[in-house]
Specification:
heterodimer, A: alpha/beta, eight-stranded mixed beta sheet, 12 strands, 22% strand, B: mainly alpha, MetI-like fold, 13 helices, 74% helix, MetI-like (chain B), transport (chain B), Peptide ABC transporter permease (chain B), transmembrane helix (chain B), membrane (chain B)
């Protein structure tokens, strides 16, 4: 991993819900390197969005409790006031949201929405901001940027809207771009185009990208590093190849074996991980995945296993108490199921 | 880029369609009023005959006089004949003359309609101002005591009937405190030579700024009376629609851009939450006109509502028909404006 750009220390996010406080993020340490694409993988409700939104306080509110530290550019963004945070938002850290149709203002021309992002952080005339907005729309691969800039979101196709969203994210050349499931609402060919676009941006601008996704195909295509989340914690973390080809945690193994393979035998039914993730307020001691894990034993229920290097490569961390032999058995068993 | 073609071509067509419906609405309405008036018990002739005979005449005399009057007013003809002559006159914009004074209805409406427009527009402005402000504050302070109090006051003012509010404000501000005049539109002693019959416009055209203050003083109580219940309603609608938009994804996008709360409210929230508000304003304008009939009567304000009530009491068919038509025209035009506002506010509706 290259030079550290943003450091997350002991981050917790809790939402007040009827019946208690939901621990969406239950203590996460994570460092973002300069210019890397980090994929945050996990099921819905695993806390990946809560984690990324709390980096710039977008989920702040009377019912949200954010703890820990997010160190960026010499300040702690968790402790920062709203006014201080406003300077970071959109300028240093920007977000590309999923479902661009909902994330764009339906009553504003898209060119103006891009220009607004520029004008919020730079002293620039309206006319120049509009010109720059058109350039950005061209840069993200919109064929006729002048015309698109004057269009309203509903007049554009889904792929073009997502490109507009990315243009907004890029407008101030941020150090970190959080892309929250940017390809979920798109069909496969457009998905590939958008992913290539993100990859190009990382290369040309050196932008650090946090890519939130539940699609392992997306991860394989663009990610440099992967962090797998489960029930508010990272349970495995490493380079893309380490995590995809040498998974350490039974949950990661399960995720991988549930992906259909072009080169594998045809199966009538894909293997799935039994049970469902913890969604309630109560979190029993021990590994959160234990209730669903085929290889569960006593040690799993004693305490939550910390994320650390265990049996794999130097930067390949996991949070599973299985020993080497146990992991090999688990891998073998899952491969059998897949066949 | 096919999808990015702007749909501006549809807009004039939409407007034309909307305007084309106006005469149809008015035709339907005038027919209904025509029939309704003639279904009412009592007739203009008997009212006139009984009134003219100063209470001493016998039943036979009244009947005899009534027949003469009927013939004079053309009410002895068959209903279809009366209806078609009414429609024929309407086509030439002739609304007929009052059965009583013989005044031309167009002239009467020319005086009364501007007064009613002044009253309803003033009420609308007050209601929108109060309703928007309180609604926005309530939404931004959701679930605090400010929110609860605002909503409680809104509900109470929404439930107050106009006549009660009118009488109450007359008693308090006119009789007890003596702060404001409670009758009419301008003081009698003021020499006002109407030109447009809109006092504000006349004050400007005739260079008579001294008209404005007494006019506002007379307008204030009836307008506030009319506005309060509507304001309570607007508060609730504004609060609900602002809250809804605040939860929308594009508001989060605006926050992500680093915009301040005020800018987000002005630039992103208000415009998007104005759609349901504008709809409600158009519909509420109808009940505002209904309320103006009552309010004008309570405050002896010389508007169309006052004209209408007197016309009904005296069975003065042409006045009632003319006044109803005027009110309907006002309502329809306001709703055409609402539809146009809709198109201006939401580009998604501009597709034909």
């Amino acid at each position: 991993m290259s030079e550290a750009l943003l450091e997350i220390r002991g981050l917790t996010v809790g939402f007040d819900v009827p019946g208690g406080r939901l621990p969406a993020v239950a203590g996460i340490d994570l460092t973002l390197g300069k210019g890397e694409i980090l994929a945050l993988v996990g099921e819905s409700g695993s806390g990946k969005s809560a984690l990324s939104m709390s980096l710039v306080g977008l989920n702040r509110g009377p019912r949200t409790h954010i703890g820990g530290e997010v160190l960026f550019g010499g300040r702690d963004l968790v402790g920062a006031g709203e006014k201080e945070l406003r300077e970071v938002r959109g300028k240093d850290i920007a977000v590309v949201f999923q479902d661009a149709l909902a994330a764009l203002n339906p009553t504003q021309r898209v060119g103006d929405q891009v220009a607004e992002m520029i004008r919020t952080h730079r002293r620039i005339s309206k006319r120049n901001a509009s010109k720059r907005a058109e350039e950005l729309l061209g840069e993200v691969g919109i064929a006729n940027p002048g015309q698109a800039a004057r269009a309203y979101p509903h007049q554009l196709s889904g792929g073009m809207r997502q490109r507009v969203m990315i243009a907004i994210g890029l407008a101030n050349d941020p150090a970190v771009l959080i892309a929250d499931e940017p390809t979920t609402a798109l069909d496969v060919t457009i998905q590939a185009q958008v992913l290539r676009l993100l990859k190009r941006l990382q290369r040309d601008h050196g932008t650090t990208i946090v890519l939130i996704t539940h699609d392992l195909g997306v991860v394989a295509e663009v990610a440099d590093r992967v962090a797998v989340m489960y029930a508010g914690r990272i349970i495995e973390q490493g380079t893309r190849d380490e995590v995809l080809f040498d998974p350490q945690h039974p949950y990661t193994m399960g995720l991988l074996s549930s992906v259909p393979r072009v080169d594998g035998p045809a199966v009538s039914r894909l293997p799935a991980i039994a049970g469902s993730p913890l969604t309630g307020v109560a979190r029993p001691d021990g590994c959160a995945f234990a209730p669903r894990c085929t290889f569960v034993h006593e040690a799993c229920q004693k305490q939550t296993p910390p994320l650390q290097r265990r049996y794999a490569g130097e930067a390949h961390l996991d949070a599973c108490v299985l020993d080497e032999a146990g992991r090999a058995r688990a891998r073998g068993a899952l491969e059998e199921v897949a066949q | 880029m096919k999808t990015a073609i702007l749909h501006k071509a549809g807009t004039p067509w939409l407007i034309a369609k909307r305007l084309a419906a106006v005469p149809l609405v008015l035709l339907g309405l005038s027919t209904m009023v025509f029939i309704a008036m003639r279904l009412l018990p009592g007739s203009p002739a008997t009212s006139l005959a009984a009134g003219g005979a100063s209470g001493n005449s016998s039943a036979a005399e009244i009947t005899e006089n009534a027949e003469k009057i009927n013939a004079a007013l053309g009410l002895d003809k068959s209903l279809p004949e009366q209806y078609f002559s009414f429609l024929g006159d309407l086509l030439t914009l002739d609304l007929g003359t009052s059965f009583y004074g013989g005044n031309s209805i167009t002239a009467l409406l020319g005086e009364a309609l501007p007064a009613t427009i002044e009253l309803t527009v003033a009420a609308m402005l007050i209601a929108v101002l109060i309703g928007m402000l309180t609604g926005i504050v309530a939404a931004l302070r959701k679930d605090t005591w400010i929110d609860t109090t605002t909503r409680a006051i809104g509900t109470v003012s929404f439930s107050l009937p106009w006549f009660a509010l009118g009488v109450l404000s007359i008693v308090i501000f006119g009789v007890w405190l003596r702060w404001l005049p409670v009758i009419g539109r301008l003081p009698n002693e003021l020499d006002y030579q109407p030109f447009t019959n809109f006092v504000l416009l006349d004050a400007i055209f005739q260079d008579r700024p001294e008209l404005i203050l007494p006019w506002l003083e007379h307008l204030l109580l009836p307008a506030v009376t009319l506005a309060l219940s509507m304001a309570g309603f607007i508060t609730r609608i504004v609060r609900a629609s602002v809250l809804e938009v605040l939860g929308d994804d594009f508001v989060r996008t605006a926050r992500m851009k680093g915009l301040s709360g005020g800018t987000i409210l002005r630039r992103h929230v208000l415009r998007n939450s104005s759609l349901p508000i504008v709809t409600v304003l158009g519909l509420q304008f109808g009940s505002l006109l209904g309320g103006s009939v009552i309010t004008e009567t309570v405050f002896s304000y010389p508007g169309v509502g006052n004209l209408l009530i007197n016309g009904i009491l005296q069975r003065d068919y042409p006045i009632v028909q003319g006044a109803a038509l005027a009110i309907a025209l006002l309502f329809t035009l306001v709703n055409v404006v609402v539809d146009l506002l809709y198109l201006a506010l939401d580009p998604r509706l501009r597709k034909a």
